[in-house]
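User: Helix-turn-helix domain-containing protein. Structure?
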Amino acid sequence: MTASTELRTVPQVMARLQLGRTAVYDLLRTRQLASITLGRARRIPTHALADFIRTRLDQEAAS
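Assistant: Predicted structure:
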């Protein structure tokens, strides 16, 4: 798997964003953060996390 196709777990995303479990699942539920489901597990592609952060930074800069 290349770096652009790596998958992160919810706890890894929680640590990266310094958010709680509920907040991360809210982002997933509202589709602000893209994910895939493998069986019962949610996985977040690394590029989706980077896109989410970039989008948020752009929104903050535009405010």
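Residues 3-62 form one domain. The beta strands are 7-8, 36-38, 41-45.
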